Amino acid sequence: MHQQAFNAGVEQAIMSEQSSASKAAPPTSSNGRQEPNGFPSGMNPDDNFVQIVDVVKKFGETTAVRGVNLSVKKGELFALLGSSGCGKSTLLRMLAGLESVTEGQILIDGEDLAQLPPYNRPVNMMFQSYALFPHMSVESNVAFGLKQEGVKGGELSDSVNNALELVQMAKFAKRKPHQLSGGQQQRVALARSLVKRPKLLLLDEPMSALDKQIRQRTQIELVNILDQVGVTCIMVTHDQEEAMTMANRLAVMSEGQIVQLGSPHQVYEYPNSRFSASFIGSTNLFDGRVVEDEPDHIFVESPDLPVRLYVNHGITGPLGMPVTISVRPERIALMRKLPEGAYNWGRGKITNIAYMGGYTLYHVTLDSGKVVVANLSSLAIGEIDSPTFDDEVYVRWSASAGVVLTS
Ligand SMILES: Nc1ncnc2c1ncn2[C@@H]1O[C@H](COP(=O)(O)OP(=O)(O)OP(=O)(O)O)[C@@H](O)[C@H]1O
Ligand SMILES: [Mg+2]
């Protein structure tokens, strides 16, 4: 597909995502008429399976969540992402009904959560520390919630069995938690969350107790299991790779607000702020001022570079406006010779090399003092004769590599 047409398509998608983010449909239509199921007529209930409308949460002086609007689709795996203390767990706890909402409304499948008694809420939450009952066997742990509800006999054992089969833990049914690995315990906790067939599953840092290798395997397993069950799932993580691998869509939170919403691809390729760009993946940020702005391109002058930055899409804003151009490390090439064209390059010296196995990160300190990070494959390194410390090189990137950020 033609790159620009592709960009335009994605931008359109992001804009419509964002407008739906900032205006998650309220539960009543403009004339105030509400359908029996809580959805205004004409709306697809599956698109608004979970509706969070203008939700605020205050703990005394602290405002943990500041006016969040969000719709989650039925069957979607949605990730809430953000740094520590930004309000992720608080939002999840409100969805679980474990924390009251200070302002706003939460609807699940068209029903106002505040109106539902706790035992009737179609939600199950797996906590940041998913403690299993240590003295109970795997099967008793999974059966616990159902037993509380009075399920017994064949129905109970079938449900427990099915849940354990699903997470491939049936053969460990008689073991105690301490006889299991971290990843296995995590799967039992998941079976315990799924056995009651919740409409909405909430996972708070589900992988936080696992080491990196099991974590990656478990991420894939979890996605497969959730797919099989078809449950709608909102998970919290502060691991951006985890969110990227697992989620259909994600929201980046900062200080109690959603700052960007979209598919992992949209948020990574088209961050809407310096915060998103640096939070999801790493990036190179060049501060400068707009010196030419046309519908199909923009030129920016930055003290970081000897030449202008050129991006092949325009923005709306006055000349001279301060902007930041974000260029991902994998979009940056190293060259031995002076690049052609009077834009998107800089000259410098290699001041750091981090070998990462599958790729290598080169830190190039430009003449301006700006450090640019380039992510190079072994192939790319071979093509430029394996540059090393103190080598003089040029960094350069294409017009489609940069994203213009105005906040
Ligand atoms: N019960 C409480 N009373 C007072 N303040 C609280 C309470 N619970 C959370 N907070 C505050 O609300 C803010 C958001 O907390 P929250 O637990 O939602 O963060 P988080 O995004 O889940 O962080 P982490 O990634 O560290 O788990 C924090 O400033 C926290 O100190
Ligand atoms: Mg938390």
From TrEMBL:
Pfam families: ABC_tran (PF00005), TOBE_2 (PF08402)
One MF annotation (Gene Ontology) recorded for this entry: ATP binding
Residue segments, region Disordered: 16-45
The UniProt record lists the keyword GTP-binding: no
Biased composition, class Low complexity, residue ranges: 19-30
Name of the protein: Spermidine/putrescine import ATP-binding protein PotA
Single GO cellular component term: ATP-binding cassette (ABC) transporter complex
Keyword terms of this UniProt record: ATP-binding, Cell inner membrane, Cell membrane, Membrane, Nucleotide-binding, Translocase, Transport
Enzyme class name: translocase
EC number: 7.6.2.11
Annotated family: Belongs to the ABC transporter superfamily. Spermidine/putrescine importer (TC 3.A.1.11.1) family.
InterPro entries, per database record: AAA+_ATPase, ABC_SmlMolc_Importer, ABC_transporter-like_ATP-bd, ABC_transporter-like_CS, Mo/tungstate-bd_C_term_dom, P-loop_NTPase, PotA-like, Transp-assoc_OB_typ2
Reaction(s) the record says it catalyses: ATP + H2O + polyamine-[polyamine-binding protein]Side 1 = ADP + phosphate + polyamineSide 2 + [polyamine-binding protein]Side 1
ABC transporter domain ranges (all copies): 50-280
Gene3D superfamilies: 2.40.50.100, P-loop containing nucleotide triphosphate hydrolases
Organism (species): Candidatus Burkholderia verschuerenii
Function: Part of the ABC transporter complex PotABCD involved in spermidine/putrescine import. Responsible for energy coupling to the transport system.
